[in-house]
Amino acid sequence: MPRLPKNFRIAWVSIDELAPIGYLETGPDTAVPTRFQANFALEEPDVATTMEVFVGTDLRPVVLSVTVKGKAAAPVTTSVMRQILVDQLVRAAVEKATVPASVRDEWLATLPLGAQAVDRREASSTADERVRNQADDDARRAARIYSDAVAAGNRAPAVAVANVMNRSRTQAARYIRRARELGLLPPLGSSEGA
Question: Distance (Å, rounded) from C-alpha 165 to C-alpha 93?
Answer without folding.
Answer: 27
